[in-house]
From TrEMBL:
Function: One of several proteins that assist in the late maturation steps of the functional core of the 30S ribosomal subunit. Associates with free 30S ribosomal subunits (but not with 30S subunits that are part of 70S ribosomes or polysomes). Required for efficient processing of 16S rRNA. May interact with the 5'-terminal helix region of 16S rRNA.
UniProt key word Isomerase: no
Keywords: Cytoplasm, Ribosome biogenesis
UniProt-recorded name of the protein: Ribosome-binding factor A
Complexes and interactors: Monomer. Binds 30S ribosomal subunits, but not 50S ribosomal subunits or 70S ribosomes.
Family (UniProt): Belongs to the RbfA family.
GO biological-process terms attached to the record: maturation of SSU-rRNA
Keyword presence, Disulfide bond: no
Stretch forming the signal peptide: none
One MF annotation (Gene Ontology) recorded for this entry: ribosomal small subunit binding
A matching Pfam family: RBFA
InterPro entries attached to this UniProt entry: KH_dom-like_a/b, RbfA, RbfA_dom_sf, Ribosome-bd_factorA_CS
Length: 123
């Protein structure tokens, strides 16, 4: 009988929760003036690597997305150290941050659909 959730997906969910808390409360870098949201974590089958997809609420910050991702990737060792204290795993995966632009794409599609509805008077 196959399990409904694999071990890697359960670990990915726990990593997502803990990484979001660590970014919000423990990263004290003043360059992070934007809100960072962890949207998804994908863990490799051998649990040695984790791809962390983040999005930014862009409000009056001077750093580009590329620079913010670079800062997060430089802080991944510190985040991994804090994860070692929070999670009881034999192997804490190496973390690599990626930008997730699905929210902005979804917002653009929603705006286009709203314009079409208003143009055609379809409710």
């Amino acid at each position: 009988m196959e399990k409904s959730f694999s071990r890697s997906s359960r670990i990915a969910q726990e990593l997502q929760k803990h990484i979001a808390i660590i970014i919000q409360y423990f990263l004290k870098d003043p360059r992070f003036k934007t809100i960072i949201t962890v949207s998804e974590v994908v863990v490799s089958k051998d649990l040695s690597y984790a791809q962390v997809f983040v999005s930014f609420l862009e409000k009056n910050h001077n750093l580009s997305i590329k620079k913010l991702l670079n800062l997060l990737n430089k802080a991944s060792g510190y985040i991994r150290k804090l994860l070692c204290k929070k999670l009881k795993l034999r192997i804490i995966p190496n973390i690599v941050f990626y930008y997730d632009d699905s929210f902005s794409k979804g917002n653009k599609i929603s705006l286009l659909l709203n314009k079409l509805i208003k143009k055609n008077n379809v409710i």
